[in-house]
Each structure stands twice: as structure tokens, then as C-alpha cells.
Write a structure and sequence with these properties.
Layout: E1 2-8, H1 16-33, E2 38-43, E3 46-51, H2 55-62, E4 70-77, H3 81-94, E5 101-109, H4 118-132, E6 136-138, E7 145-151, E8 155-158, E9 162-163, E10 175-179, H5 185-195, E11 199-206, H6 213-228, E12 235-239, H7 241-250, H8 253-275, E13 280-281, H9 294-301, E14 308-309, H10 317-327, H11 330-333, H12 355-363, H13 368-376, E15 379-381
Parallel strand pairs: 5-6, 5-7, 10-11, 10-13, 11-12, 13-14
Antiparallel strand pairs: 1-3, 1-4, 2-3, 4-8, 4-9, 7-8, 12-15
The structure holds adenosine-5'-triphosphate and magnesium ion.
């Protein structure tokens, strides 16, 4: 008999060779995210995590592993009726049952060699528990307590099945470069693409001394939260100051934001080429601000050498805030900070820039060397993960 955590990973939408690739990634991710917390085994369409200490912490971490749909602390026993009913009885007995508790037993039998079928197991175990616990009452529709039994090579019994985050294992979709600010939106965008299996590299543009150390700390904290969700990379930080200073000198104020955005896309292209990134990711949402109109998005999008994924494009700010709260980035994002783009924001940025006008302005700039240097000097900042 032993206690473990039963992990369900859903269908992952795939068969054959791809399926084993997905499961391999999933296992790697679990091992990375739960390093030192226990060990992982696999048998017959299930993964099992054996926590080294209390399972609570491991459960919370596992609920952040994309690809998992269920996380259930379970007891493993031999395929033997006495053992199964004894374990279920002990587990239910540990619960503080109110005077009247409705319950049901649900059985899955993957191993047909066991002499009782699933109906019989549910019925017999239900009767056994009813006899031992007078507080119990059967309700097959909306039970307060669900006793679940899985019959495999061994039997597994569990009372709680916590939801996993779903999605696809991080790393099954190739690498993408996330343009991450200290704001609310881009960390959520990164989370959404991690959830679809993209191996996200976080890239930030800072403008010292216009933006201070605290702003960078904030972005580091945000990336730290995303690391809990399977992001593997350190924070890539580019010093944007020399580029920005030239723009401020030479570009009319109302075009400043849009030109800064174009420089960010160019730098994103260069980092993607270096890191074999297959896409860029931004936190833009249509119409949210002047630089997020269709015209503005077009003027940045045309420069990209790969798809620019904007998972928040159709969401309202309130929806994004709600997601940020659930993910754990919101409280960090709302701390005051300066962003490189906010420091010199004009009061009336152009909302419908014409590409022709933008290109005309850019003719007067010579930023090639500065862009190259910015990428050559890119700094990778590793993040101390709080392991409490
Ligand atoms: P966020 O909340 O992510 O800052 P936002 O609504 O404030 O987004 P903008 O400031 O217009 O939007 O920025 C649009 C997108 O450009 C951001 O979502 C982000 O992907 C990228 N971006 C903006 N500033 C930076 C920065 N300093 N470093 C990296 N990417 C940035
Ligand atoms: Mg912002």
C-alpha cells in the first residue's frame, strides 16, 4: 500500500508517434517543475507522482503543469477486495464527515482480469461504506463525496480529483519570443502561449536610467511566476536606451510610440533568428490604446519575419485582469513602474498611422548598428525561484 498522486493527461489530441513525443515532454516538464519533490513513474496510460513529503505542495505545483487535466492524491493497493475496501474505509474515515453526507462510488476497470466488474465493485464498496459510516447516504447525481476506484495492475482509490490546467505540454509547439513588459497584458499573453505548448523565451526592453532597477525587478518577478507555469528560460534583457534616444531626437512626438514598437519587432526578429524562435508573442488587444488599432498593428506586423501571436486580441481588459489574477501575475503587474514606452509618451499619439509616412520618417534614421549592438549585448538574467 502506498500514497501517490495519480495524474490524468487527457487525450492530448494525438495518436501514435506524436503521442509518445507529447508524453515525453510532459514527463520532462513535471520533472523540471517538481524537481526534488518526489519521483515520477508511468504505467498503462497514467502517470504517477510519488511525493517525497506532504503531497499538498506537489499537488499545487502539478496543477500548474500544462497537459494535465486531473491531479488526484490516491492510495495504491493490491488487486484484492479486502485491501480495496479496507483502504477506502480508512480514507473515508479520515474525513470529518458531517451528520449527513451524500456519496457515491465510481469505478473504472481498465484491467478486466479482476473478478468483479465495475458495477459490482461500486455496489459492494458502497454497501461496505454505508455499513461502516452511518452518516453516509447514497446520491448518484450530486454526491458531496465521490469515492473513485481504478482497477489496473494495482487498484487506486481516491476521494479528490483536482483539475489540472489542461492545454498542451510546454515545448511541444516550438520556441516563441514573448515581448514582455511590466504591465498586465504581456505576462498573460505569455501564459496563454505556454498553455498551447510554446516554449516561451521572455524578452524585455529596458531603458536605464529612464527606467529604474525596480522596473526590471518587477519583470523578473513576473517571469518567475511564468516559470512556475513551465517557462524554462531566464529573462532576456535588451538595453533599449541608445535606440530610444535617437528616436526621441529625430521622430515627431506623435509617431514616437509606433516607431518604438517597430524597433521592438526588429529586435524581436533578431533574437528569434538567434534563438531559433518560430514566432513573436505580444500582449496587444484590439483598440485598447492608440498603438493597438488595426493600422498600428499592421505597421508593426509587416516587419515581423514570423507570425506575431496576440492571444489577447479579442479580450476585454476586465477578462485579462481576471486571468492575470488567476495566474498570479496581477499583484506584481499593478505595482507602479516606468515602462520604456511610457517615459516619453506623447499626449496625442497617432492612431491611424500610414505606412508611407512611417517609412518616410525612418529614412532619416540610421539605427542598423545600434540594433545590432543591442542584440549583441543582450543580457540573460536568471531568476531566483522562491522554493518555499
Ligand atoms: P502590457 O500590459 O503588456 O504592457 P499594454 O496594454 O501596456 O501591454 P503597450 O504598452 O501598447 O500595451 O505594449 C504592447 C505590447 O508591446 C506589450 O503587450 C508587450 O508585448 C510589448 N511591449 C511593450 N513594452 C515592452 C517592453 N518594455 N519590453 C518588451 N515588450 C514590450
Ligand atoms: Mg504596457
Amino acid at each position: 500500500m502506498s500514497d501517490l498522486i495519480l495524474l490524468r493527461y487527457g487525450e492530448l489530441g494525438l495518436k501514435g508517434h506524436n503521442r509518445s513525443f507529447f508524453i515525453k515532454k510532459l514527463r520532462q516538464n513535471i520533472n523540471r517543475i517538481l524537481q526534488g519533490e518526489g519521483n515520477l513513474t508511468q504505467a498503462h496510460g497514467r502517470l504517477f507522482f510519488h511525493p517525497a513529503q506532504s503531497p499538498d505542495r506537489a499537488i499545487a505545483r502539478l496543477q500548474q503543469v500544462f497537459g494535465l487535466v486531473g491531479v488526484a492524491p490516491a492510495r495504491e493497493v493490491e488487486l484484492d477486495w479486502e485491501e480495496i475496501s479496507g483502504a477506502a474505509e480508512e480514507m473515508v474515515g479520515k474525513k470529518d464527515l458531517p451528520e449527513k453526507t451524500t456519496f457515491k462510488v465510481e469505478t473504472k476497470r481498465a484491467n478486466k482480469s479482476f473478478y468483479l466488474n465495475s458495477m459490482e465493485i461500486s455496489r459492494n464498496l458502497g454497501a461496505h461504506l454505508l455499513q461502516k459510516f452511518p452518516q453516509l447516504q447514497v446520491d448518484v447525481h450530486q454526491p458531496q463525496l465521490k469515492v473513485q476506484v481504478e482497477i489496473r495492475k494495482k487498484a487506486f482509490i481516491y476521494l479528490n480529483d483536482y483539475p489540472g490546467p489542461g492545454g498542451l505540454p510546454v515545448g511541444t509547439g516550438g520556441r516563441g519570443i514573448l515581448l514582455v513588459s511590466g504591465g498586465i497584458d504581456s505576462p498573460v499573453a505569455g501564459w496563454m502561449m505556454l498553455k498551447r505548448g510554446i516554449d516561451v523565451i521572455p524578452l524585455h526592453f529596458s531603458s536605464p536610467p529612464y527606467t529604474n532597477e525596480r522596473s526590471l525587478e518587477k519583470v523578473k518577478d513576473l517571469v518567475g511566476v511564468l516559470q512556475g507555469w513551465g517557462l524554462k528560460y531566464p529573462l532576456y534583457n535588451i538595453n533599449f536606451t541608445p535606440i530610444q534616444e535617437e528616436l526621441i531626437q529625430k521622430v515627431p512626438g506623435d509617431f514616437l510610440t509606433i516607431l518604438m514598437r517597430r524597433m521592438m519587432i526588429r529586435l524581436g526578429n533578431m533574437v528569434a533568428a538567434r534563438e531559433r524562435g518560430k514566432c513573436l508573442i505580444t500582449g496587444e488587444s484590439l483598440g485598447q490604446v492608440a498603438s493597438q488599432t488595426i493600422e498600428s498593428l499592421h505597421s508593426t506586423g509587416v516587419l515581423a519575419n514570423s507570425p506575431v501571436l496576440k492571444p489577447l486580441i479579442g479580450l476585454d481588459k476586465q477578462d485579462i485582469i481576471k486571468m492575470a489574477q488567476d495566474i498570479g501575475t496581477y499583484d506584481i503587474s499593478i505595482q507602479p513602474h516606468e515602462d520604456c514606452c511610457q517615459v516619453f509618451v506623447p499626449s496625442h499619439p497617432v492612431t491611424r498611422p500610414r505606412l508611407k509616412d512611417i517609412e518616410e520618417i525612418e529614412k532619416g534614421l540610421d539605427l542598423e548598428e545600434k540594433l545590432k549592438k543591442a542584440v549583441a549585448d543582450l543580457e540573460k538574467i536568471s531568476i531566483e525561484v522562491d522554493s518555499s
